[in-house]
Model the fold of this input.
Amino acid sequence: MARGNVRIGVLHLRLRLGSKRVNLRRLQSSVEALMRRHREGVDVLVLPQHPLTGPIIGYYHPERVQSHLRSAAERFQSTWGGVGFTISTLSKIAADYGVAIIGGPIVERAGPRLYLSTIYIDSSGEVGGRYRKITLSREEKMHALGHGREVAVFDVGGRLRIGVFADLDLLNPEIFRGLQLSGANLLVGSLLPQRGGPLPVEEAEEGYLKPRREAIRALVFSRALETGLPLILVGGIVESANGAFIEACSETLVVDPEAGVLEPYTRTIDDPDSHIIIEVNPGESKPRICDNSCVTALKALCRLRRSPQDSERSSREETARSMVGRKG
Done:
């Protein structure tokens, strides 16, 4: 590994719907194979969406989705020390191998609310941060999932700043401008196809669901080009609950802001339980300077995401400041 480079391992996994035992076995086997093959070390592991439960919305009957969401929901941190199965599993893997992990979204429980959240676990196994998905589909809103209010950039050992996103965020350029303004060196997100969602999907000849290839590639290249940052989109393969057939597949892509999609790193339905290794030099991967239009868009995003109570409080504070100014 070149001095100063950060080595990232990306897992392109098969995910069986609702089967934690099968998914856990595959995850552990894939991590072990990656670490055995790359003895010089990996700094960060990146996992697909719902790495132990498989996806939910768009894969179960609408009347059963709510119960599946609540069954899969986990606390990320708790004053009682009780965190969910996925979090405890990922924490153990991180600590055992001394590697940071970015995974998700998974279903997060926070009080009475549920979110689709991407988790960051540092190399000691501690939860170091989370990103609650901002851009939700109609179905996700219908099932009372809450949306996040802030972009998230995870600092990996003081060497690399990774900005994260999830599927539909690709339609929201302000999120990427926010990540750019926050000083990200690399963009990492995940995507599994969802029927009825705003991202274009189609059925393959074999009958499984997949994102429309050229449309998704154009989107990810646009986001990389706008920010001037390399981008990793983690896909995966979704199996039926009994493992008899493939429900869906999304490509894993690595995108350069100038060269576009780097085909040697692409993983498809023909590459189950595989991985890729990417080296990033933080010194060479710097966000483009955020111009005035970028700052304006980010401020508009923040205003859009604030609650009415936040807006009212901000208005009161602004009024108070102006009165103090007049008195002075």
